[in-house]
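Bumping with the actual sequence this time:
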Amino acid sequence: MANYPSGVVIVTTTNDEGLPVGIAANSFTSLSIDPLLVLWSIGNKSSSYDIFNHSKQFAVHLLAGSQPELVNIFSRKDIDRFAQIEWSFSESGLPIIEGAYATFECDTFETIVAGDHAIITGSVKHITTNIQNPLLYHQRRVGPLPLTFHGNI
């Protein structure tokens, strides 16, 4: 699957103490238009598996091409990820990363355990966009969409 190009996102929520939690994922996709639903998945060996599995809400950040360092930060263990980045809480209490290509604030709709992952679906409640070149994931590397893909962006 590493040879299949995809987008890359950071998913955030808060733990029981109200502290921000986040994880990098490339399993994000649109699920439904009516109602507006999205989904992503998290492995059961992730240190934040239980937090996301029981969270009532989360935010999905579609990263901009200029944000590859965020993938490295949110893929590392044993660091304070949020101390490394610019972020703030949204009106709904979700940690929001500055400069993302788009952000979807979601209420958890349903969580389905499938194999060694949980598929977490969300009902989109708020969307923020910041139109720019998106970040892509391919062969375990991240980078911006090449400008030659559509001609001039």
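The tokens above came from a reply further down the thread. The helical segments are 49-54, 68-75.
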